[in-house]
Amino acid sequence: MSQTLINLNNISLAYRERTVLANISLDLNPGEIVTLIGPNGAGKTTLVRIVLGLQKPDSGQRTIRRGLRIGYMPQKLHVDNTMPLTVKRFLSLTNQPMTDIKNALGRTGVEHVINSPVQSLSGGELQRTLLARALLHNPHLLVLDEPVQGVDVNGQKELYHLITELRDEQGCSVLMVSHDLHLVMASTDSVICLNRHICCSGHPHKVRKDPAYLKLFGGESEELAIYTHHHDHEHTVDGHVVRKPGNTGDTP
Ligand SMILES: Nc1ncnc2c1ncn2[C@@H]1O[C@H](COP(=O)(O)OP(=O)(O)OP(=O)(O)O)[C@@H](O)[C@H]1O
Fold this sequence. Notes:
- By secondary structure, this protein is α/β, with parallel strands linked by helices.
- It has a single domain (about 5-215), classed as Rossmann fold (3-Layer(aba) Sandwich), CATH 3.40.50.
- It has eight helices and eleven strands.
- The strands form three sheets. It has a six-stranded mixed β-sheet with strand order 5-6-7-3-8-9, with helices on both faces. A three-stranded antiparallel β-sheet has the order 2-1-4, with helices on one face.
- The protein is globular.
- The termini are far apart.
């Protein structure tokens, strides 16, 4: 594994005899974006914690390239509502220079929130602030646990686009967790579909059609992917539907 950043070999883990991860093997290679996808409770966060070295598996090996720097964006940020904490103070806890902090916030598009309390940020601003924090150590690998949660659909697309740009600019690798293959499709090199074991993996277009993926996520996801909204009407400002001239169809 000369070039490989992190290798997991046959990792298994159980909580009180309940298997959470079984025989997981994977390689994270330089410059690659890998997305972990799976239903709730599939073991995605647990696997991320093992990749980060925060949790030890019951069996199997984790091998990490010497000197590897990892930037981590957690799934949740717990900040006590009564504790005054500005974005500036929050990011200063990383001990990085203020110019780097400002640059990172600028790069993720939220320089304007630097003096705002963390608790007051919108979903998108919070995710971009957490992404800026993950960038601060100039990482070789970005690990992003559900980076678009709490963000609306357009914001999600923008955020995935930004993640791809950051990978291109910085040449880092990305391991991220997502719930929606179709939204992440354009932004990932490969997908690992997890449900306590690896159900299928590979190029996103291949995984999308894999019977194991379809079994987990159902045919609905395929229908959603091909559904195109034929808009035969317009809306008034108060939301009422107005048919376009010459169109009487009942398409939504
Ligand atoms: N510390 C723990 N002790 C006992 N069980 C745990 C612990 N941490 C996680 N689990 C269980 O392990 C399973 C996998 O959890 P994990 O958080 O890794 O799933 P996930 O795929 O990230 O889920 P989600 O999409 O809901 O975030 C779940 O059934 C969870 O209840």
